[in-house]
Each structure stands twice: as C-alpha cells, then as structure tokens.
Amino acid sequence: MALTGIQIFKLLPKTNCKECGVPTCLAFAMNLASGKAELDSCPYVSDEARDQLAEASAPPIRPVKIGRGVRERITGGETVQYRHEKTFYNPTVIGALVGSDIAEADLEAKLKAWNAFQFERVGFNLRPELVAVKDVNGDAAAFAATAKFIADTSEFNLVLMTEDLDVMKSGVEACGFKRPLMYAATEANADDFGALAKENDLPLAIKADSVEALVPLSKKLTGMGLKDLVLDPGSREIKQSHEDQIAIRRAALKDANRDVGFPTITFPCEMASNLDVESMIAGMHIAKYGGIVILSDFAGESLFPLLVSRLNIFTDPQRPMTVTEGIYEINNPDENSPILVTTNFALTYFIVSGEIEGSRVPTWLLIKDSEGLSVLTAWAAGKFAGDDVGMFVKKSGIADKAKTREVVIPGYAAAIVGEVEEELPDWTITVGPREAPHIPAFLKDK
Known about the structure:
Number of domains: 3
Strand order of the largest sheet: 10-9-8-7-6-3-12-11
Structural class: alpha/beta
Largest sheet: 8 strands, parallel
CATH topology of the largest domain: TIM Barrel
Low-confidence stretches: none
Radius of gyration: 27 Å
Distance between the termini: 69 Å
Shape: globular
Number of strands: 17
C-alpha cells in the first residue's frame, strides 16, 4: 500500500538541503506521495529507507522498456492525467505491422523505405520505432525468420504478435536479444506466456475483452513475478477504445489501482480500412493515452503529422525549448562574414538559421541565453536588454573569429541599439529585419 506524505517524511534525511528542487523534505515527501516527484531526486536517502519507499516513489503507471541499446524506448511512467498538470514523459511509441508470411525481398524493401522516414524538427530527429510481426498462418519457422531479419538488419524494435506458444517461443529465440514485446497473454495462455516472458526477461502484453477483464490477468502475472506488462483492453471500435484508454489512465492515477498501472497498446490498424483513418485514430491515441500505437503501414504524409503531434504533446509545457548559448557557424563563415545575434528560443533559432542557410551567405549567428523566450518577449521581460547583449557579444569570443565589427540585432529589439552601443563603442550596431523571411535579402544586400 502506498505511504502517506508524513510516513514518507519520517524516512527522509530531513536536511532540507533543497537539492531535490523543493524547499523542505516535507514538501518533497508530499510530492513523492502524490506522484509528482521521484525518489532519485533526493541524493541523501539511505538504502534502508529507499527499500521502504520503493512503492511510494514508483510512478503510478510503470515505465516499460522495449528494445536495447541506443534505440531502446520506454513507454509508460506517466504521473498526471492532463499534460498541463505537469508534463508527459515518455512519448507514444509508433509502429507498423508486417505479416510473418512476407517475402524476404519485400520485407527488405519495406524496411528500407520505413527507415528513410526520419524528420528534423527543432533539433530533434523524429522517426517511428517499432515493427510488429504478426503470425498469420501458425508457421513458427516463418515467424522466427521474419523477426530475425528485422532484428538483424534494422534499428526497429519489435512486437511479436501471436497467441500460439510454440510460435512465440520461436520468435523469442530468434530475436530475444533485442528485447521485443511479447503480444499477447490471454486468459487461455497466461500461465505459459507468463513463464516464457519471465524466463527471458521480456515485456509482456495482456489482451482481454474489456478493462475489467484485464484486472485478473494482471494480478495473475504480477503474482508470477512479472513487472513489465502492457495492457490491451481489446476494444477495436473508436469510441470504446477512447473510453477505455481514459478509464485505464484514470484508474491508475486517480484510484491508485496498481492492477492497471501499466502502459497500453492500441491497434489503429485493426480499427479502420485505410491508412488515413488509421492515422486519425492514432492521433487520438497519442493524445489519450496510448503507450504504443500500431499502424498497418508508414507513409510520409500521415507519419510526419503524427510525429510532430507527438513531439508537441510530450514537450514539457512548463519549460521552453531552447538551444545552447554560443556561436553558430552557418554556410562556412570567414573573418569577413556578417554577425547576427538572437535569442535561444529553439523555434527562433531554427527559423533564423534556416533562412540564413537558405540565403547561402556565410554568417556568424550568436545565440544569447534568454531563458527560452522569443525576441520580443525576451526584450519585454528584460532577458534581451542592450547591456546584456553587448556584454554577451564581448564575452562570446566572436572577436577572435571575425574581423567584422558590426553586429546585426533583431528588428523587434531596435530599442536596445543605444545600450548595445554603450557596451560596444568600437562596433557598429545595425537593426536587422523584424521577420525572418526578410533575412536572406538583407544579407545579400550586405
């Protein structure tokens, strides 16, 4: 049973060191009890206390690892019902389906095409992560061969989809090294699948006919010592699936029901007859609250919006996206290239740098830390003041890289010209365009 805040407080070191991010150990204990903090945030908790606090500090939805190495993904681990309460941590894992009877040449071509779906967005590489191999004819050898080919020749993680124990064993033997998700344990095969998952230390999905029917299966498997579970309530009708995802999240978070405190897997590929509708359903599940979504295929026009939507939903709304303060070289600048300065808000940086790159004019771009605020907001908040900008230019080291003694400030910060000139008396301060699309013409005129 979860401990109360006072019970947790009694086990903490009571140093009030503030290193956990809150002022007192009591405040940290209350956050821990409500699932708003993690025990690892306290650097001084004893091993004995850590053991006692394990249940209280565990996220209400268990984080489950799928895959190994650099492409390992974690699903679950969420602590809030709504994103604005705090944040969502582990992005929905997106996968596509292949049948176990697919020809090797066709599979090779498909994997090559799927692997090409990688998109750069505000400094992040967006890509799908999973391939689900579905047993279509009970042929264990074909199932194993398909799974092994994907594991050996691609960076995708795997879901092994069969309810046949012998087929699942062959798949696990072929690609168990990649830590695939076993799908799925049912009322009929839970004992056998549970034993296989435990023996190979693999995550296991549970499939039932309803949310309520998941509970006894979950209890049985956790009683066997399994912890890494993924839930499928079996709903394949859109409205029911949406309601089930909300019900599972609410039961885990609001009711502290550990029996459903696991991430979920959803199958838009089984809920629609075309990829466009599948993609809309997947978008719904990314928002609420699928841990994994499986499509029938990947196509750029549907995948890219899903990846961007996922990025937006799983970006901390309380923390601006930023880039590192410093000097950025664009188009191989030399000592005579122009120098521009702007804020470290990620969107500002990528828009400005993109326009500079498109102009093909070699340019030095100075990025000043503005705590993630855009130019106008940063100026209004005093985070992009003239004296600060001037001091930053001096300390940045740009004078050692360029002979140019002219710096271009954003048009929206024109009011700081005088203050920058006071800090940089030997420099010319030029006001640049207000809007990024005007930068290429401005640079070419320079």
